[in-house]
Amino acid sequence: MQALLAFSRAVDRLNAFVGRYCIWLIFAATLISAANAVVRKTFNYSSNAFLEVQWYLFAWSFLVAAGYTLLQREHVRIDVLNSRLSKRTQVWIDIVGFALFLTPVCILVLWLGVPMLITRFESGEVSGNPGGLIRWPVWVALPLGFTLLMLQGWSELIKRVAFLRGQGPDPMGRLSNQSDEEALVEALRVQQAEKDQQAASGAAAR
Question: 169, 180 in Cβ contact below 8 A?
Fold first, then answer.
């Protein structure tokens, strides 16, 4: 389990690194958009390349940062029912989701996306718009982004299994100012409290 947790921490560091620098893609897109507007208004000149590089950068930031978004638990979640369940049930739902839904979808996208990237790279496909850009650089973001997302899904899966085994902190409730040891102690305390509550409920029912 310790080897898997080490792998999980390495993936977390990788996606944290990628996420911190993805913001510069948004910044670059903003600068290009502003420069394009100034040139168009001042010199009455523009190019489709300016427009296409903006959505290239947006696609890169959106796809490549997907793993970082999962790490930060910022994806949209519909938890009207989930929030009413016990912590262990919530963790099990996440485990099923990561193992049976996220991972197969990522593998399918990679299975279909990598050959498409290779085809576009070998053909040198260029945008059909006048002054447009070559296509393969933006296609690179697809397999790269889904690889990082799949790795982060595995990292989250490992953390949840470790939590259920009492070998890791609560993956959904850790405070940023807690150390690993403090978070683990808190997770064990919550688990014990839930067990005591279940035991008390069972005794009352008898």
Answer: yes
Amino acid at 11: V
Using one digit for the tens of pLDDT, what is the confidence trace for 19-70? 888 888 988 888 988 888 888 888 877 777 888 888 889 889 989 999 999 9
Count each helix (H run) and each strand (E run) in the chain, helices first.
7, 0
Q: What is the pTM of this model?
A: 0.75
The residue type of 145 is G
Enter the tokens of residue 54. Answer: 């903006």
- Domain ranges for the chain: 2-205
Residue 73 to residue 155: CA distance in whole angstroms? 13
Structure tokens at 107: 């593998």
Which two tokens mark 112?
């279909």
Give the N- to C-terminal CA distance of the chain in Å, as an integer.
Answer: 38
